[in-house]
Design the sequence.
């Protein structure tokens, strides 16, 4: 074997190894989430003029097993002057019910307003629920909480 053929083989091996390393995160991703598909809803929360999105996700089978409206409870600091929620009004096909109230245990600081979001999705069985928080335009998720249908899933963060 001449030297140029050997170095070409090494070069190919190195490229293949590099591509394999790049593909590794996708290969190690949990297949359950990909195999079943997910549904995602996007209510928008505004507190004192700052906006953020909270995403509620569940496996696609939620569409056939949800038994009532998604319930959202949003808590904000007493010092906040204005709060609004814009929801999708769809939930997972059964609508949404939203309540907002202030709580003295949440603070308004230089960083922003502490908030707590609680989500309840009623269903005929137990399915995973993921709640994600993305401040601003909703493009970057900065906090998550997970749980199951038929129980409250709470996420506490700062807006």
Sequence:
């Amino acid at each position: 074997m001449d030297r140029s053929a050997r170095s070409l083989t090494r070069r190919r091996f190195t490229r293949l190894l590099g591509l394999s390393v790049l593909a590794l995160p996708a290969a190690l991703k949990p297949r359950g989430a990909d195999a079943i598909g997910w549904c995602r809803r996007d209510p928008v929360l505004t507190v004192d003029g700052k906006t953020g999105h909270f995403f509620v996700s569940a496996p696609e089978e939620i569409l056939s097993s949800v038994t009532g409206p998604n319930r959202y409870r949003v808590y904000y600091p007493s010092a906040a002057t204005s709060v609004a929620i814009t929801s999708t009004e769809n939930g997972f096909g059964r609508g949404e019910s939203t309540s907002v109230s202030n709580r003295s245990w949440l603070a308004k600081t230089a960083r922003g307003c502490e908030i707590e979001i609680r989500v309840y999705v009623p269903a005929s069985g137990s399915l995973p629920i993921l709640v994600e928080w993305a401040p601003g335009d909703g493009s970057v998720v900065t906090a998550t909480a997970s749980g199951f249908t038929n129980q409250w899933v709470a996420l506490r963060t700062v807006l």
In short: The longest strand covers residues 50-59. The helical segments are 3-28, 31-36, 62-65. Residues 133 and 143 are 5 Å apart (CA to CA).
